[in-house]
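Task: encode each sequence below as structure tokens.

Item 1
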Amino acid sequence: MAVAIPTLAVERELLREAPLVFACDEVGRGALAGPVAVGASVVDADSATMEVPVGLRDSKLVPEPKRADVAERAAGWVRASAVGWADAGEIDEVGIMRALGLAAIRALAALEELGFAPATGVVLLDGNHDYITPAGAAGLDVRPVIKADRDCASASAASVIAKVARDARMVSLHDEHPAYEWQRNKGYASAAHRSAIREVGLSAHHRHSWAIADAPVLF
């Protein structure tokens, strides 16, 4: 089956309405441990005339050995990019959807610090639900688009940039808690990860409010 190649068709339509398109995509929503991350990229009319970087895809479709290189090329292609975070404690406190919204708001705020104000453009959000506005982002024009990470090049860029950043963070936590093998599973529910939870319990980086396993909490 052919792999979908993202285009700029949606972005070009949106750029008829606004001078900037901000694309957001999340990674880590379904993990048992670690933060959620939302990548954000921004493109303008000049970006939309350029060729999409070779190999750019939704991060799930880019082989892991190639992701860092694709992310670097994607970051060089868009006008700017950023990653926003919400950690496991915040996920436990406010729930996963609100945590995604907070991470997205933080990513967009980082772009504003670079001189790209989200309020002046349109926010293209991967998915079918606007989780950004309810998290406190007043005044933004958020447009959810199903499979944007697959079909829209700016969202693919946000996806792979966020994926590489989150994977690196999980690998950095491996030495602190090697039993969970986060360098391999990045906090997702692999057999080795679940086995370690049963044997040694939950770490501070696990999402304690989730029904992960009947295991004691590590402090």
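Item 2
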Amino acid sequence: MRLIRGLGRPDGTDSGLTAVRGAVVTIGNFDGLHCGHQAVVDRLLAAAREHAAPSVLMTFEPLPREYFAEHAGAPTPPGRLQRLRDRLVALDGRGLDAAWVLRFDARLAGLPARDFLEEVLYRRLGARHVLVGDDFRFGRGREGDSALMRAEGERLGFSVESTPTVSDADGRISSTRVRAAAREGGFDEVARLLGRPYRLHGRVAHGDRLGRTIGFPTANVRLGRWPLALRGVYAGWLQGAGGEPLAAVANIGWRPTVQGTEQRLEIHVLDAAPELYGARVAFEPRALVRGEQRFDGLDALKAQIARDADTARECLAGDEPGRVPRTVC
């Protein structure tokens, strides 16, 4: 899968986009890449074969709701399920020709709907066929809808198709449902809705070595500026350190006891001490141990981590990494 970043040149001769001109494209946030999103990707691939065209998935970073919350006084958005890295990992291997990541900024937010269609889909991509949901909105002030896209598509030379909806007994599969299950620690339900285990990926970076000084060394993964839906202490499995997955307890949050200023994933391996600096790892949470909280000093924090580690061992007893219940995908 080719990764293409940014709008490229106005005339559509950007080297990355040139390789996929005349594509079939779908557009969305795809946060979580749940079973509903996967059905869209499957339909995208089928439509690309029908049109003998490249398949392109367009997504945004940051997510539009995050941009508007920061710059336009919109309500604080719900945390995301995935960082961009996690989205791309989930998409890779599904057969797409390209993922096109547009930076959602003032320029894109202020682009009129008709200009978005003409400048982005027509001139830069040369889109042949576009898949979007019936409730898809785009352009400045969300002025564009699927009806406008269909009408403009006829003028510009591309067709428009409604994307499929996937439901189960509880209703439509959505990122909102996955997010709610994750916040409650229901990771079996999360895996069922995703059709795969929920994992966070990243490279282990040097931290402040505080965990090591209190007897609980951690592998630290920086999570970036956009908050995750998960926040708290989780029992789970660390993968990517070589060999079998390792039982672990991890904190996802801002570390209020030590006045942390950035969100981190801090993973403590329960019964081993692997050297992880610089390694690419994935953490698969399996149970919520507790919410994040502030403690009165490091001694209280150390005592709580010891209790958390015992709880994590209990949670993971009899569990196995990568387990996925019967899914809706």
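Check on item 2: The chain is about 30% helix and 20% strand. The longest helix spans residues 298-316.
End of task.
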